[in-house]
Structure prediction request, 818 residues.
Amino acid sequence: MDCSSQAIAGPKMDVKEAWAFARLDAFWQLDAPYSAAAKEDWDQKKIYCDSAQLDAIYDAVDCLREAMDQLEEVARDRLIFHLKRLPPLPDAPSECFEMAEILQVKRFLYHAHALLKLLPERAQNFFQIRSVGADLWSRLALGGMTESFYVADDYHEELPEIRSKIKEIDAQIEKMREAARAELASLGLDLAHQDFAVAEIAIAQKLLQNSRIVTVEPFDAERSLVRLAEQPEGLLLRAKRAALIERESQLESQVLKQLSKEISCVLEELRKFEQKLSAFDCAFCRARFAERFLLVRPRLQAQAPHFEEARFYPCMQDCQKLQLDYKPLSWNLDRSVHVLFGSNMGGKTTALQTVIFLQLLAQSGLYVPARFFETRVYRHCRYVGALTGDSWTGLSGFGCEIHGLVNAWPEFEEGALVVFDEFARTTSSREAEALLSALTEGLSEYPRSTFIFSTHFKGLERNERASFWRTEGLDRAALDAVQSSDLSERLRAINRCMRYGIVREEGELRESDALRIAQVLGLPQEIVDRAQRALTK
Amino acid sequence: MLFEPFPCISAFKNRVLFVTGPSKNTGKTTCLNYLAMQARRAHLTPALMSVGIDGDRQLSQKPAISMTPGDCALSGEQLLRMSGIFPELLEILPDRSAFGRLCLARAQRSGSVVLVSPEGNAGVMRAVEKAREHADLVLVDGAINRMTQITSWPDAAFLYVVRADTSHFEAAVHQIEHLHLLLSCPLIDSTPGIACDEPLTKARAGLLPQNDEPIDLLDFTKVFLQLGELKALLKRRAIRVRHRISCAGIVLWLRGLSRARVQQALPDSLSVPVFANPYEI
Prediction:
């Protein structure tokens, strides 16, 4: 993570993998701010590493939850309407903005001012949102206090006269055409609502003989194409019109230049205003998240993560789809190094995902789905496991893990939250246990960091500086009753009989229930029996 | 099949009407101009747009659309300013063109504007949505393969403009027959079919399992088969569509051909009305 409190970066390489591991996008994308600028900000998925800054964000969410609650539904809808239509401002001053950019600025002011009228005073004060650009608005609204823009007559003294002349010429041209159409109508051809007609040759000939106001072109063997002819006076008028339009265009360019100058003068101030509105919009979005998903404010302090009844939302969704029960998780990570054992399908990976999920949500400024969540602010967040470095070439799975670990090592001194999902599972169990033993001991030298390992390697040495945990595991007696050939039913049975809670590892170590799970999932009984015999030898 | 009077424009109020055709120079823009004039006559504000693959067409070759005060049009900012229509910019789209940002503008004066197409399907969607906010009906000069979005608006429809003259008579009849076959594709039902998400070309059809199961497509614009190929395929298996695209009718520009001769050549079971050249008197 980039940790400067000024410019906080989104998920870089280190957080990116942890972000993906915790399946955060699935949750993150459930809502978004409304305005263009805030959306852009939101899409960066910024991670904050400064607890004061995070607390300020949480305060903003608290403020808005209260302030927006007091807003009537209609006012809230109108506020959302204006936020949605708030366009982005130009990035930098310009000597000559395009007309479209000037419209964007006008629209920004139009909606921003409307927003201000609706925004509860408490929110205005909290975000220090004060009206700006009043002079510019009055200039841009010369053509009307609407969302549209055109170069109105009032922008230049010469424009009304020119436009009046163009209008006069248009009226003259139209008058001539009206007269011509009336003459044609008297000869039997109505061109009032079409610009040409396909008529029989005889009719066309008759028209041509009796009137000089038509031109006739051959169409096919039986018909001709008849349209109004341009009159000499008409040609002259059109030439005059073209000249006037050219002059009008020059004047309009002058006006756009002048307006560009005026916009450029206040652009910095406007952009600050935009940032405040964007901060409001993002906080409003966070407040909606908190309301919709019953989230709680994280408590930031010096300790490692501690949570009660946390809900790992993506897993909850999966369970819902599979009609499985989801059980919230509680865990107090009281030391630097933690090792989590447990059954296959017993929720070890989900436990690690839950920790990262809560931590990254909290450090992105969102409240978290738990009854209680207390944590410290880490400068780095890492996942080391099967997903690590999937883009690296020339390294095996184990090589990738080691490479990821070595890469992350310098961060441990600064404070990192690192999860190792079944680290070294692709190497020999003896060496893996030795490696894990060394790591759990060595990493305890970094008290500012928190390391969590999930593993099946129960032979790793226990040391006093690490905490050892296990998931509660399978209720084997209950699972023995399951007799179904349907896979989804068997999955539901495992889910029903699995205890996902995390408890300290004490006394005799449980097996991983691998054989029983394999049996329930349909591995031939003969193989399961052989494995059982091998295990008891 | 009889030639019917041109449809009353009021029937398309608050709707999106694509004016499309089998190829270039079939009279789509002329038809669009006519419809716009009829809209003004009925006191309806038209929004004029173009969608399609025009990359191979120089701007100078593209016909300008006549506008009168109140009409809306989608084009590049520079073209709008050059047109003399005294544009009031209403909406700005994210798309950029060689002529500046794509804008929806309202004409405050008469003039002619060359329309510029938005990019991609999402661009078309956005542009039409914006145009609907400001106009009573949206008229789109569009390439047929860009009509997939039409299903997004329940009341949207298309007119199919075909030019038929003595030298291209057979081709025109084939074009109408081709459309007729495509419009006759049934909707997908619960019976098994082979889903085809790619455009259905001759090569793609050859790659599909060779049985009599129907081929299921999003809509008929995904069929890229010549008439002969289509007929041969339909003899073996059906093509079904997820969405029907409503056809308001076929506009037939006849040149050197009598209506009676054309009438004889067209399929009897043609399910859509055929309109004669509205400029004929």
Observations:
- The interface with chain B takes residues 87, 98-101, 103-104, 143, 147-150, 163, 166-167, 170, 189-190, 193-199, 203, 219-223, 241-242, 245, 248-249, 252 of chain A (CB under 8 Å).
